[in-house]
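Risk register update: the risk of archive-format incompatibility is retired. Evidence:
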Amino acid sequence: MSARARWIRLGLVEPLELRAAYTGLAEAQPRRAAPILLWAQAKFDTLIGLARAEEHHYVLALIVPRHLAPGRRVRWRAWALAPVIAAYRQFGLRAYQRGEEIWLDGRRIAQSGAGAIGECVVAASSLLDAFPAPRGDAGRAARAGEFRAWLREGTALARSEWTGRGEPPAQRQLEAVLRGRFEAQHGWQFETSWPTAAERAAIRGARAALAGQRAEAIAS
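Archived output:
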């Protein structure tokens, strides 16, 4: 019998909103909560200096109670990335994991992060179906290795192009493939979900705390 899991769509979000969402949700979960996968479109063009808005820049954040994640922290990222890599390969892209990053044809295309928040493990990664070209010093924003540093900057800048590999998949197709890969690996059954009243309150609290931290950082 498949275990229940929740799939929450955020839509187009700013970095602060993404961080508030996964932080608040993780803090609000009891020890035996159902796993949650946040699915969003990233709005990071002003942070990493891209020439255009990233309409096809998707981000996921997996939030799971610690008892469901590998016992060793060093394994969290690989455990979370396996379905992402499988989704790339289903579309014919021979992606693979290399350290904290996802690579394709010898080039980095995404970076991930994983850490503990409350009773949960949170792992996040970008999943791009189109890779815009960088400009200026945008590449430096992609080299943040620590979990919170990476999420503070957004997601890592993709270093490859899908051009010549076929038509990029539609968002719903990409989402459906990813859902299927996570379900197959973990024995889950996703249901489309929304934050509860208590979770929304936790997200508001996280948003306020993060905004305060940003204000202090700017002031200093």
